[in-house]
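Batch job 17 of 40 flagged for manual review because the log was empty.
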Amino acid sequence: MRLLHKFFLANLLLIITIPAVGNDAAIPRLQQYLKATFPNNELVLDRPMLEQLAWVEGSAYRTSEMDASSGELTVHREIPRAMSRIFCIRQLRQGKPENYTAFVAPQPEDGRLTRESFNHLSALMRRLSDAEYTALEASVILSSVTLSNSSLQQARKTIPEIELPNDTVQFLATTAPYAKAVYPLAAACEKQCPAINTLLTTLFLPDTHFRHMLYVEGGVGMYQHLGRLVSQKQITRSGLDLWYAGWVANITGFRGHLSPHGSLYLTEDTYQSMQQLKLGLDRMLLQPGYTPLADYLGWKAERLGFNGRLDNGMSEFGLAWLAATLRIHRAQNAEQLVTAWHQLPNDTRKRLAAHVSRLLTQPDLPTPTYGPAVFANALAVCDGNIGKTLVQVLPAYFSALERAEELKKSGRMQTSVPVNFNLLASKESIEQLLASGPKTLIDVDSLTGAVQLVTLD
């Protein structure tokens, strides 16, 4: 067998061992890119921000979101994402008509975020204290350098007794309590924000990932940690709002590497799903033990017209899960999804129904990562062909989860390690997967959870 990603572990070692790129070498490139992207000084970043952001230059780690649509960049793709996020939350913080215009500039007119929705998000940002907002901007920069060479080196130096996670978000949660010692930007923020470590710990809550919830990447277990915090009265409404503000910032620049001057991604459709999910999270504060997953899927099913669609044991929840994973928000696209589902082999339908059942009933399932990126990138390569995407991608998706389960049952993989689809979401892997024949198989790295394509020579 030949692993198509046989260099994955080598790249992982590079991330860990290569000396950090010097800030002095990277900062001029960042300044040049910033000036070219925002030529009229629409975005200004201070020196500590640039020095911290420079940590990501030279990092081998990158996400594969919309890999097929990405052009060549002169900087690491996390840099335009970070700049887009800072630009967008500053527009929300100011909240004026001209800020709304700048925020939605990259969005197509059809489906553009409404002024009313912008105002609602703006109110969230304006409720933050100055210290909270300072921590929020810092969190955006730190999110972009997670798992960089310098971050790993400094974290190992600061907290050598703690095992550092391979997951980017979990890495942030692990290092947040020590942020001033790990990240120079956090130390620079201390004067304006003495509680920077505490606020970053709230912004980077462990095992509480809003985008995973939004796309239903995992099951009821996604809400367990937040539920514990609620039951132990360790999180307040203001704390939950600060955490949510961090995810609003994240989502604004989710595709900032494609268009950093505004928010390409946070459209009205995305906002409606975010708002519905946030209502469910707010309800957790008032009703300990409540889990929003079933109600969120039910809302999506009703919104897309899936109610009552039962066929061969497939409930509307299964269609709602597909819609969430594929980021389908509108009824006309939902009809294409129903048509595509009828094209699936019976075996794939059964695996889908079993998967959704597990999501709703098994809280101990680790949440896979980057699954929606695989579907989004496949859709981009297929020119939006939902049927072809599902026929080719769903079996590979389920095979990866099943392979991981086999490894865990045999003791060859730790039960806590999530399946990681980031490599599979790369443009090269997507093209291989879509063109694959019957000899293409899926394997999972037992150490990292990385999904890899395998071919039989």
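Reviewer: the log was empty due to a logging misconfiguration, but the result itself is present. Residues 1-22, 66-70 have pLDDT under 50 and may be disordered. Unflagging and moving on to job 18.
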